[in-house]
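User: I'm writing a tutorial on reading structure tokens. Could you give me a worked example: one chain, its sequence, then its tokens, then a sentence or two explaining what the tokens reveal?
Assistant: Sure. Here is the example chain.
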Amino acid sequence: MKVGVSSYSYSRLMGPGRLSMPDVVAKAKEMGFDSIEIAGLPLPDGQTVESTAALVREVCDRHGMSMMSYTIGADFLNGSGGDADAEVERLKGEVRVARLLGAPLMRHDATSGFSAAHLGPRGFADALPVLARSCRAVAAYGADLGIRTMVENHGFFCQDSERVEQLANGVGHPNFGILLDIGNFLCVDEDPADAVGRLMPYVAHVHIKDFHVKRGTLPDPGSGWFQSRGGNYLRGSIIGHGDVPVPQCLRLIRKAGYKGDLSIEFEGVEDPLTGIGIGRDNLVRYLKSIPC
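And here are its predicted structure tokens:
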């Protein structure tokens, strides 16, 4: 398994007058990574999707960086005005962007949940047919272009391992997989190791992330924390500093025979470069301690 990084980890350093996406690729290489995941593709002034994707791909090639995945948001219940078919068509355009980037994988959400204005089904079992049909359509389109599509355990509504497994089986397309984020299960108060063990048969890509956790019975810890679905407090952590059982999850991932990349996602309050660097060192050390 090769250790890479998501551009999302550098998001606090990006923006006008700061790091561009090509700069992030160069910085990731400087920090010892050989692969990168592109989370969104911001367009500089005067640039098109085509020109920006071509530049990012050229910079990756120049630095010897492989492209792990292209990550974008989606919502088949609320997105595109609540029109799932329109959201599918929008995502087909993103699949074409993934091909321009040279990414073999594309991650999209299923949904972030329900908006106050949502008038359709509110239970997961009721929403599952819409989500499965939409994901299947994107996966089929991706297959024609050589891009495997995935849904991440993300967004509270479609985040529990049982729900994600139901979605994977409901889609039932060979070009569809799961992007497993080992930390995100804590957002729905699920034990990460139990969830990893359940979902490994469906996994196409892996995010390594860590969180600090405080029980919801404690006082609100303030800025930098958010609440899980069950009201516990979470804060992004440097890998190895938080409460996610990272080594245990890695052992399960390796035992399942996963050979793909591991993509670091850092969203802690620490300086991003410090957080990413320490997290990378810890992750590499953990992997060395796990028998192949």
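What the tokens reveal: The CA atoms of residues 76 and 269 lie 31 Å apart. The chain is about 40% helix and 15% strand.
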